[in-house]
Amino acid sequence: MTELVKTRAIVLRKINFGDTSRIANFFSEDYGKIPIIIKGARSPKSKIGLIVDTLNLVEVVLYKKDTREIQISSQIELLQYFSNIREDYNKITYATAIIELLNSLLMENEPHKKLFEGTLRMLSLIDSTNENPKLLFVKYFLFFLKEIGYDFRIDNCNACGKQINIGEEVSYNYETGLLCQECRKERLTNFNFNSELVGLLFCLRTKKKCNYTEENLDFIIKMLEKILSYHIHEFKGIRSIKFN
Ligand SMILES: [Zn+2]
Question: What is the per-residue pLDDT across 95-118, written as a single tens digit (0 to 9) for each?
Answer without folding.
Answer: 999 999 999 999 999 999 999 999
